[in-house]
Design goal:
Blueprint: H1 17-29, H2 35-52, H3 62-73, H4 78-87, H5 95-107, H6 111-123, H7 129-150, E1 159-161, E2 167-169, H8 174-183, H9 185-189, E3 194-196, E4 218-221, E5 224-234, E6 238-245, E7 248-258, H10 264-275, E8 287-292, E9 297-302, H11 309-317, H12 325-344, E10 347-348, E11 357-360, E12 382-385, E13 392-393, H13 415-418, H14 426-441, E14 447-451, E15 457-461, H15 471-481, H16 490-506, H17 509-526
Parallel strand pairs: 3-8
Antiparallel strand pairs: 1-2, 4-5, 5-6, 6-7, 7-9, 8-9, 10-13, 11-12, 14-15
Length: 528
């Protein structure tokens, strides 16, 4: 029987709230990889939908909509569930229903069905209708990319030519990556932790079986045995597993297993080792070794157990709240500091989003001094940027090179990508703006063109700021980062923005105290 958390708050007017709290706790515990946790979470989502599906109060509640999709994710009969959602009038006039289900179907490879769902929402004039139309356009673009990538006759070129005749490099094209790796093959082989094997993975446990059942399987890598405890993440080409080294529960690592083999991420981590030093280095993750086989690559890295910034955002969103502004400011300082250090080192991340930002907590209690200079316990507190498969090493390209290439990550395509213009650092700074927007508003950022005081047009977020927020800080951040050109000194801009947020935090000692309390509360809620 499902157990629902008791909340000290009065839930008379919102009986859904304690269910959402229990689901939020279940999502956090899901990282343990336990089958019992997964079963309990599926049961909880199912029981919640049964309890409130006919309650008119929740027909247009986004929180309840998310519970339905959680229930759907654990069921093989998802089509019947979507039909039931329509029969119960769950958000049937809202674009989010159709966009979310279309994404769900696309992830399963059901592309025709996904397209039909976009069209169904548009035919019903679900609001905002422009969001659905834009979503359908992006869907067609992704499908075109898949067709092009799968065509044996079409050669993927590393350059993109505009109508003006200008040529720009696509840093993510297969030919670009292949050419760069070929040129640095000798250098790569000398990096510490690089192990090349021309044969297929020879271990007793077949790598292909890990996607079906992972817990307690042991795989051999070099002279060590890695006991897999659970799945920590999954993408289109790779899976990340939590593992104990030689059955030692105190020695925990992350294994990123990718097919086809992909050494580029290892190269990027070694560039971080050589270019970023001191306390800044801990913000970018560490890799111990790469084993490169003919069929797979296995990347062994540090494992951080405290969840991601996306988890922190979700933990507030699922109960209808939002992140405390003092936390938003703190993490914004962290993000600005990260990009300042990265870009100063001529490195772009290329996939800057909250899923790739792991949370770090200090080993000792935080003090009220040391915040500004990140000394003492504050040095261990913060974020850690991982997943460097889309990383760009600017030192490998001619000075002032500009790029053309689309990350095709919904919600994170910078304005230049949206308008088919060349870009450089904007791939990261736009991602920073989206992350900040998600922390403040619990939603992806939508932008609009507005006329400025001098008659020119600038881009700004559509969503308004709350009156009690530090609106001057936020407006300055978005207006400047969304309206920079490739020739601007953006590193100085990142520094000045970081300093403005730091100065605000340090202007009143009470704010550091409030930040400490918020971080403790966040850790308790996410690690319960």
């Amino acid at each position: 029987m499902t157990t629902v958390s008791n909340s000290p708050a009065d839930t008379t007017d919102d009986p859904l709230f304690p269910w959402l709290q229990s689901i939020a706790e279940g999502l956090i515990n899901l990282k343990s990889g336990s089958n019992d946790v997964v079963s309990e979470l599926n049961r909880l989502a199912f029981d919640c939908t049964r309890t409130f599906k006919n309650d008119i109060r929740y027909q247009n509640d986004f929180r309840f909509l998310k519970v339905w999709f959680l229930y759907m994710d654990g069921s093989s009969d998802f089509k019947s569930i979507f039909e039931e959602m329509q029969q119960c009038n769950i958000c049937v006039q809202n674009a989010m229903l159709y966009e979310s289900y279309a994404f769900f179907l696309e992830a399963k490879g059901m592309l025709r069905d996904a397209r039909s769902i976009y069209q169904l929402g548009i035919s019903r004039n679900a609001e905002p209708i422009e969001r659905l139309k834009k979503g359908l356009t992006l869907f067609y673009e992704r499908m075109t990319a898949i067709v092009n990538a799968g065509s044996e006759k079409k050669k993927i070129d590393s350059t993109v030519m505009l109508k003006s005749g200008e040529s720009f490099i696509n840093p993510w094209s297969a030919s670009t990556i292949t050419n760069l790796l070929q040129k640095m093959k000798h250098k790569l082989s000398k990096y510490k932790g690089y192990y090349l094997n021309a044969k297929a993975y020879p271990g007793k446990v077949a790598i292909s079986t890990l996607s079906k059942s992972v817990r307690n399987k042991v795989i051999d890598i070099g002279s060590k045995k890695y006991q897999i405890i659970g799945c920590a993440g999954q993408g289109g080409f790779a899976q990340v597993f939590k593992a104990h080294v030689n059955s030692n529960p105190e020695d925990v690592v992350a294994l990123k297993i990718q097919k086809p083999a992909f050494p580029w991420e290892f190269y990027m981590y070694r560039q971080l080792d050589m270019r970023i030093f001191g306390k800044e280095r801990s913000s970018f993750g560490f890799v111990h070794r790469l084993d490169l086989y003919s069929d797979y690559s296995i990347l062994v890295s540090d494992f951080l157990s405290h969840g991601t910034l996306q988890d922190a955002i979700n933990s507030n969103a699922v109960i209808g709240g939002s992140m405390a502004e003092v936390l938003c400011i703190y993490y914004t300082i962290e993000l600005l500091s990260m990009l300042e250090a990265l870009h100063r080192s001529r490195i772009l991340h290329g996939d800057f989003k909250p899923d790739n930002l792991l949370i770090r907590y200090a080993r000792d209690d935080l003090t009220e001094d040391g915040f500004h200079d990140r000394t003492g316990p504050w040095e261990d507190q913060g974020l850690c940027l991982v997943d460097w498969g889309r990383g760009i090493d600017l030192s490998l390209f001619p000075e002032k090179t500009k790029f053309m290439g689309d990350c095709r990550t919904s919600g994170f395509r910078c304005i230049e990508m949206q308008e088919n213009k060349p870009w450089t650092f904007q791939v990261d700074t736009y991602g920073l703006c989206v992350i900040v927007h998600m922390m403040l508003h619990n939603s992806y950022m939508e932008t609009e063109k507005k006329m400025s005081s001098d008659g020119s047009y600038i881009y700004l977020p559509k969503a308004p700021f709350k009156r009690y927020w530090q609106t001057d800080l936020w407006k300055n951040l978005f207006s400047k980062l969304l309206n920079t050109s490739p020739d601007d000194d953006h590193i100085e801009l990142l520094r000045s923005l970081r300093k403005s947020f730091q100065d605000y935090m340090c202007s009143k000692p009470q704010q550091i105290k409030e930040l400490k309390q918020s971080l403790v509360k966040q850790r308790q809620s996410m690690c319960a």
